[in-house]
Amino acid sequence: MTQPLRHDAQTIARPLWLLAELTYACPLQCPYCSNPTEMAQIGAEMTTDDWFKVLREARELGAAQLGLSGGEPLVRRDLEAIVAEGARLGYYSNLITSGIGMDEARVNALAEAGLDHIQISFQASNAERNNFLAGSNTFEQKKAMARAIKAAGYPMVLNIVLHRHNIDDIDDIIAMAESLDADYVELANTQYYGWAWHNRAQLLPTREQLNHAESVTTRYRDNGGRMKLYFVVPDYYQDRPKACMSGWGDLFLNVAPDGLALPCHAARQLPGIEFPDVREHDIAWIWNESPAFNHFRGFDWMAEPCRSCVEKHDDFGGCRCQAFMLTGDMYATDPVCAKSPSHHLITDVVAEANAPTSARAEAQPIVFRNPKNSKRLHATPPAGER
Amino acid sequence: MSRPVIHATSVARIARGHRLQYEPAQDCHVLLYPEGMVTLNEPATEILTRCDGQRSVATVCELISAEFGGADVSDDVYEFLRLAISHGWVVIG
Ligand code: SF4
Ligand code: SF4
User: Fold this and answer.
1) Cis peptide before A382 (omega within 30 of 0)
2) A10: helix, coil or strand?
3) Which of A157, A253, A272, B9 could cysteine-pair with A184, CB 3.0–4.6 Å?
4) How many domains does one find in chain A?
5) pTM of the full predicted structure?
6) What CATH number should be reported for the domain holding residue A62?
7) A262 lies in which domain range?
8) What is its EC number (chain A) (predicted)?
9) Last residue of some domain: A190, A211, A237?
10) Complex ipTM, two decimals?
11) Which residues sit with their C-beta closer than 6 Å to ligand 2?
């Protein structure tokens, strides 16, 4: 998310942003997907009425932005109905899609249902690489859909996840966005959650690659380029963590396909926290009262060095999921922080990514996101899980 | 960014993709746009709710002035509109 929701510091925390992950099903297999790798084990999807309940209750609490994502939300046949209900309730709705499962009629039906905004993702700037990374022949379809979105009167927001295998194409990526008449382009470096975590060694770019991409982006802006480019840097190359979700349970409410309410899309993996089911509890209780949403609120849960750090108000100690994935301790300082005693866990990976030949990256093939690999990865519960 | 030029005859409207609405939960107006939202204070609300794409800026000033006992509000209106334009919330013409 490039433009965080701004809100009044005085007002009490509200779930202003509702992210509805309608399904984990997706026709694509992006190896950088941030969906949980255990997706094959996740329970049945909620019904249309379940989603209506979520929309209604979150709206009563003040939710105003509605993200419709997945997986691929177009897989849900009731997407139009969910959009219409969101519009009726007064949400500003944003569809986050790969464009697969779309046709012109569906774009128009969504617009008619009151959809405010569409963001379409591309894997790369040419068919060969796009199709390799997506695991299917989808490039032409995506381009056609990007044009259909524009023709329906929407601003065109392209999202491209950058990593080692496509970041050097940055010039081409920008040129492709130009040729599609994009208005906004999100050049988002991979965040290492879910499938991307498994493929870290394969996906992490070198410092040189990153600098090159950043300088091309800056040059485009300096030359007065028409499109607005957002460049999201990978936090592995920084020495302070991101203010993840602007704080736990402060702004974001993520509802997963199986009805789990989560403070962020990756939180399911955190051990010992029982995340509430939206079908068993109302959103007000979940947001205000549930132990899960209060678990990392405030600063009392922090250990050193965060606890006595003056910067804790800026970054809340970083990402809990990243702390857990890297150190096994979800209370630890996010290792991205140079003050973290485990910062070497980041710098080691970065050093390896910058080594002349990364032996590990060669040896380990890319794991594509699909149900088969999900089952394979979770045949036996990995260490550190409940 | 260059300073946006606004004339008395300019017509301001909420930019495409942006929506001004009243939020019952917060008891205030907000401006919603892709992946973002600003909570509006009272002066901003008075101004933006009158920028309907028809009225001139001069008319907006008159209407607000009438609401506030004839006070001269034009400096505030112009200053806020310049800010709103530079943020992309409002467009002229
Ligand atoms: S990242 Fe790729 S695989 Fe994952 S949901 Fe998006 S399009 Fe599907
Ligand atoms: S020590 Fe903790 S609070 Fe301080 S900058 Fe690092 S992550 Fe942030």
Assistant:
1) no
2) coil
3) A157
4) 2
5) 0.89
6) 3.20.20.70
7) 244-351
8) 1.21.98.4
9) A237
10) 0.86
11) A 240-241, 305-306, 309, 311-312, 315, 317-318, 333-334, 337, 339
